[in-house]
Every structure is written in structure tokens, then in C-alpha cells.
# Entry
Amino acid sequence: MRVWERQEGESAKAYEAFAAYRDLGPDRSLPAAYRQRYGKKPAAGGVPGYFLAWSSAHRWVERCRLYDAHLEEQALAELEGEWIQRRNRVRDTEWSISERLMERLEGMLEHPLTEEVVEEDDEDGLRVTTIKPSRWTLNTARLIAESISKLQRLATGQATSRNELTGPDGGPISIQQEETLDLSDLTDDELATIEEILARARSRSRDT
# Structure
């Protein structure tokens, strides 16, 4: 049983009053709930004692806090569901566009880039057929192929680029660890001297 529903031991009238209070939203109040439930304002002294007793005995504030959290969780889930649907539609669109580009690219590759002259012999003699070149370049085909690859990677959730870090001249990155000094064998006087030297060095750094 969820806490914002009628609880065991809660009378029908008490629950109806709670429901009026609950449904007012985050800005709810007892006077507003009383007015919502009974259609009139409470007396000048505030809501009746039984109304206050119901709110205390049946933990209205705590139940409504959990109810508000439940509504917020539902709203977030619905919003996430909407964005999942949108992302799915985008992926479907990207894949559809990539397939159409692939068909266009295949059609381009079937036609020559240079003019071709075909000579054929038939019964009436020699026949010459001229095939005009296509209006595209290899660079155009490369760009289309790259677009297809990127769209298909996006649609299938794959990375579209890769970045690498290298050291000098493309070599590996060298990581140097600072050496840790072992001061465990030093005497108290030696440690005090080192501390004094460090303090002087810090003071000089601040002065400069």
C-alpha cells in the first residue's frame, strides 16, 4: 500500500480530507485543503481541531513529501522515455540517410569520369556511341563515403573520431614520478634545521 493512498485505520472522511490536501501540490496548506474539501474558508481561529488531528495522526506532511517525490520520479521517467524515442528516431533517420547516400554513391561509381567512345559494327556499318563523363570527382565520392561512415557510426552508437596523445616526435608520453625522500633516520636537530631552511625559502619566495 502506497503511503499516499488510504491507510489502514484511516476513515473515509479523514482520507478525503488528506486527498484534498495532497492534490494541492507543493504549495499546499491546511486552510487551503479545508477550503478545497468543504467549499468554505475555515473560521478565523484556523482549521477545526479534528482537521489538525487527522493531519497529525495520519502524517500528512510526510506522506505528501513521498507523493511529491513519486510524481517527480514519474515526470523524469516520462521525459526520459520521450528522449529515448527521439534518439531512436534520430538514429533511424541517420541510418536511412546513410542508405540513400550509399545508393547515390553506387550509382555514381557505375558511370565513368572521362568521356568514352564506343565503336560498334552492325549491318549498316560502323556506329559510334559517345558516353559523356559524370559530373562528379573522386573527392566528391570520398566525402560522401565519409558521411555514410559517420552517419552509420552515429546510428549504431559508435565513436566517430579518435584522439591520441603522443610525446615528442610521436613517441610515447613519458611520465616521471617525483622521488620521495626518506627522513626517518634524521635526528630532531637535523629535522629542525631542514624546517628552518624551508621556512626561509618560503619567506624569500613571498618577498619576491
